Amino acid sequence: MRPSIVVVGSGSLDRVYKPPLRDVEELPEACQQVGRALALAGCDLVVFSSADDYVEKDVVHGFVSVDGPGRVVVRTPQLARVDFNLSEEQAARVEIEADTADEWEVSYYRSVHLADGLVVIGGGRSTRIAGVLAIAQRIPIFALAGFGGGAAVVRNYLDKSRNDATAEDIVLMGRPWSADRAERLAASLIEQHRRRQAALAASAAAVRRHGRRRVFTALAAAATTLLGLSTVPLTQVGLPRAAALAALLAGPILAAIGGALLRETKDNRPQPEPLWSAVRGLGAGALTTTLYLSSQLLTSPDLDAMTLAGIRPFLLLIALGIASGYTVDKVFARVRHLDVMPTQPFPDINARAAAEPSQQNQ
């Protein structure tokens, strides 16, 4: 698909530009060279006006001077008239797309947003705004800052953001116009467009990988949680002591792993880490199970009676495993910051008792 390049700017001698225009006498020829270079680079052209005050007319003349399939799209308000003074054969390559809005700003800024590249030449406030919008949207841009005007301001903004432009591109934009500048301008836009497309493709691939990983994580969370729940009836069927104890330990740990993986599907992270979540869930489940069993053993030393005591305590342990896995970060944070010994000295009771009578006497 041919890149669609938007060209904006003006170089009228009747306007005051900030910063002022420079080398205005070279501007018409430079614009025609830009148009020819874009046509030779295999681009389509998008412009907005055929008035003499704007740079588009000269750019279009240079573009249609090159034979080829390239087309010129003119986006204007519905009541605007367009005439580039072209031959019949050249005019056949011009397509007028009248916008339904009466204001030129609508089609102007919408086209900038949808462009594959932007060329700014001279211009004033609207040119600066178009350039800033393109920079914000990471649209490839080339500002002919050597002619001054709004293009010089756009180059300064681009130098701060860079996007897909290189340091060499920024330097090239600020140099005075020369005969070979148009070809290098087109090459820079094409290369920026290629980098942007590659970045978009990489981003889309990352989103697809992220989606597949989240699906895998969700399935793993469901599987480990169900495995944890499946150990509940195993403790009630008269298994040998070792098997019953294994089920008692495995159930809440599997449930904690399932809870940690479930947490991973909830968090909208750029790179999900199901393996590390499973390991953290394993640690949280082991911690919760150990603490629970330790508290039970303190009150009921008979391990056989405890493992076969009934389904209710075990279901509670499964629930604790899921909760600990789902809140694994908070669990470990509490453990890390737990003070085993007080760090503040105990108050001196004798000193306080001695001070109380004196305070009462005051």
Characterization of the model:
- The model is unreliable at 308-312 and 358-362 (pLDDT under 50).
- 60% of the residues lie in helices and 9% in strands.
- With 362 residues, it is of the alpha/beta class.
- It has helices at 27-40, 56-64, 88-91, 104-114, 125-136, 150-161, 167-174, 181-234, 241-266, 274-299, 303-307, 311-326, 328-336, 349-361, and strands at 4-10, 44-47, 72-77, 94-99, 117-122, 141-144.
- Strands 4-3-2-1-5-6 form a six-stranded parallel beta sheet, with helices on both faces.
- It has two domains: 4-179, Rossmann fold (3-Layer(aba) Sandwich); 207-336, no CATH class.
Helix content: 55-70%
Largest sheet: 6 strands, parallel
Number of domains: 2
Helix/strand structural class: alpha/beta
Uncertain regions spanning at least 5 consecutive residues: 308-312, 358-362
Which fold name is given in CATH as the topology of the largest domain?
Answer: Rossmann fold
Percentage of residues in strands: 5-15%
Strand and helix map with partners:
Layout: E1 4-10, H1 27-40, E2 44-47, H2 56-64, E3 72-77, H3 88-91, E4 94-99, H4 104-114, E5 117-122, H5 125-136, E6 141-144, H6 150-161, H7 167-174, H8 181-234, H9 241-266, H10 274-299, H11 303-307, H12 311-326, H13 328-336, H14 349-361
Parallel strand pairs: 1-2, 1-5, 2-3, 3-4, 5-6
Helix pairs in contact: 1-2, 1-8, 5-6, 6-7, 8-9, 8-12, 9-10, 9-12, 10-12
Structural descriptors:
362 residues, alpha/beta, Rossmann fold, 2 domains, 6-stranded parallel β-sheet, 14 helices, 9% strand, disordered C terminus, membrane, transmembrane helix, transmembrane
